[in-house]
Amino acid sequence: MTDDAQARKLTTIVALDVAGYSARTEADEARTTAEVAALRRVIEAIAARHGGRLFSTAGDGFMLDFGSSLAAVEAAFELAATCEPKVRVGVHLGDVVVQPNGDLLGHGVNVAARLMAQSTPGAALVSATVRQTIRGPIADRLQSRGLLKLDKMAETIEAFALTVAVVANAAPAPAPTEADPILVVLPFDNLSTDPEMQFFSDGVSEEIIQRLSRGAKLKVIGRTSSFQFRGEKKSDAAHMLKCSHLLDGSVRRAGARVRIAAHLVETASHTTLWSERYDRSLDDTFAVQDEISEAIAGALQQTFTSFSTKAIDPVAYDLYLRASIKSYAPDELCGHVELLEAAVQLAPNFAEAWGRLAYVRTWARLYQPFAERAASTALVTREAERALALDHENVDALTAQYFILPPYGSFIESDAAMERIRRAPGRGEGHGYVGWHARTIGRTRECAEITEEIYPSDPLNPMFVMMTSMARMAVGQVAEAIPLLEGLMARAPGMIYPVVVLLRAHALLNDWPAVDRLIAAAANWPARAFDDGVMFVRAERNPTAENIGAIRDALEAHVAKTGSVDVTRLVYAAHLGLVDDVYRIAESAHLGPRGSADDVIGPDAYRTGMLFWKGMPEIRNDPRFVRLCARLGLVEFWLATQKWPDCVDEVPYDFRVACEQARSIPKEAFEF
Known about the structure:
Elements: E1 8-18, H1 21-27, H2 29-49, E2 52-58, E3 61-66, H3 69-82, E4 87-98, E5 104-105, H4 107-118, E6 123-127, H5 128-131, H6 137-140, E7 143-149, E8 156-163, E9 182-185, E10 189-190, H7 198-215, E11 219-220, H8 223-226, H9 237-241, E12 245-254, E13 257-266, E14 271-281, H10 285-299, H11 314-322, H12 330-346, H13 351-365, H14 373-390, H15 395-403, H16 411-423, H17 433-440, H18 444-454, H19 462-474, H20 478-491, H21 497-508, H22 512-521, H23 527-541, H24 545-562, H25 567-575, H26 579-587, H27 618-621, H28 624-632, H29 634-641, H30 655-661
Helix pairs in contact: 1-2, 2-3, 7-10, 11-12, 12-13, 13-14, 13-15, 14-15, 15-16, 17-18, 18-19, 19-20, 20-21, 21-22, 21-23, 23-24, 25-26
């Protein structure tokens, strides 16, 4: 019988094989054979759930037949997400020959197999023929990979990649309970022809994160962490971020119209709990974000408080979305200030833009010379007030108000400002500073508890990593801080601050080989960033009279030149045995900047957190410590609030009595 006389049909073929099968077999043939046998049962079950069947196997290869293209792609999604060992998947709709035994032959089968061969582990390639026949969220996830030349075929076809958004590998994180869902919102795929629209797609995801964080009692992973999972990396998000649910989607923008597709997946069962597609004008973008947030909250049985969904000028919204902080580098911050200034000029009632402008500007201000900060402070004050008039719980604006307060001398005011942040709904980046503040008033244990609790909400955020590392070091968990700092260095090799902190951490642990490696690696970095650290390390490593004397001489020379000192330098000098010198020098020095080129610049400049590190008690064990704290305004704060520092019961003198006796010592004014 010829092929023409045989039964034929149009069907969708799903071809898959085990990634790295040959190497696995060579390493352990018996184990690999058992894995493939078990995998067959998984594949058959998935195919059956989607209305398909397994019609052929050969070694590590499997062929599936589906009457529906949509069902085939859904099955491909589940196979790529579920199968272990990982599989490569190809999907094609074509004409096939039906054999008497149910086997299928023909060009359609061959194309599916060739697509599979060019796919990657944990993903699928789908032919354009299939893409043209399906609709819905899963169709919108398909991203064109252009024309592919298929092996041993004359034709080229357009292929679309389907990258799964969840993973079930050999050691998944324990699934959270239903009562405590943890959600990751991935960066939505940009399906527009203009690659510049990726920032708009990211902005849609970011706004959903913010709305869910504020509007529902739901743990939502921060954007800095979730946005590191794009393309094929999306398959790692659930495992790496230990979430129970995952939201993914796509955005297609054409002129003044936008199509947003989204779907919510339960990561343990790979079940799609909710999906929807929205076709709207750009003026309705906030409304769509609110609808998506409310639908997700409903699916997870959370109470959601809707936001104002007033229309925002699309151009202003574009500018706002472009101004999302990634690195906190001074140049980036200044560029974002310009974008946000333009946004609020176009949309003067855009609360989110006003809040972000105040927050970004206050961070840019931290890198300005002190003599130039007054104008920026006035602008931040005005912008934060404007944001809070429109939205009284805008965390960006509340955080900006905290950071324009001086680093010492106003602890009662800064504590009240931080309390407003703490009470604000959600779990945004601003809430991470609650622990930061606790460290500055001497409550290091509270700092560690708060920081460790919030750190998992954005574990790849450089700011959260640094705050958690510093919190651990402050309570004496220096070794526990090192993996965080090393991970941050690997992800952000251009950042100086984690290298400086890690250098001191290794020195405190007397890990001198690690110190030597860091110093060698940092040989080409700006010298000023490492001067104090290297001098401290040298004295810690080899506390000779010469090295200790160099620390004292450098401290005295700095005070003689500038008339001022940062208390951090006093802590290190006291730790090295120079307690009497420290208090002698401190009595003649101003404890803040003078407005000169020698001032310390940055977010930690002249802050008091280092005074309370558990591993450096020397400066606190001397009763003169209380006088120093009175000059900084800390004694006034402790007496007024009764929020005593951890050292109250650790120092060898009556700390409370000493504070009462120091009540009349005047505070030093922070002059900038």
